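Appendix B. Raw example, untouched.
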Amino acid sequence: MNNQNERLKRPRWVSAVNMLLHILVCQCGRTEGITVAAAGSTTNVTVGQRVLFPVLPEGNQTVIIELTFKSIIVVSWFSKSKSPKLLKSYERRIDIQEDGSIRMNKVQLSDSGLYQIKTHYMSVKPPLKPPKYSRFHLQVFERVSKPNITAECRRNNISLSCSSIRGNEVTYSWETLPAGGNDSCLHLGQTMEIYPLPPSESTTYTCTAKNPVSRATSDPIDLGVCSIQQPRDGRWVSALCGLSALFLIGLLIFFYKRNH
């Protein structure tokens, strides 16, 4: 009797666990490295991940499932044959799950775009069920690499530039922290111009690069050592300009007195 009770309880326990996992997948969108695409919205994924396009046919009916991308049929699957027809370039990257859902492996940047799943019901009894359409927008991102800062010491200012060699759709921001201070300043953009010249106290600058799937921060750079001074030749130029002006004024005075 106890054994029979345990057998009756076990399916309920298993069903509860499966339901919990299903809720987690729907809410979080990720499980075991798989991103579940959400119909009618944009799903962000990282290069190399796996994406699951859920297929939920209504009832236990015979169906034909088609996944199209850029108006091209990527995979066509007939529920009775169990053998999908794949576009040649996707043969090693697409799998059909037991429930008919379509899994794409090792996504690439070129996989970004709009996908459509058509579920065509093959019922032989009226009324005929119209086909069902589900649309998914997939956006693939490459993780950003650690950015580097380059500083150009100019005559009147310092130009800072931040760049990351890897990543797409990257945005940049700067953080400035004065020496001995706790209050930092933020600046948006890939470049930053510093006016006026930095004070003698050292100031630390860091740059952060990010996109919807990753972020990375550069090593700090201290611009206290970036001393901007006018070249020595500039003093001679200033002196010559002053002497020329005095000479010109003297000539004007001489000719004025001579004429009178």
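End of appendix B.
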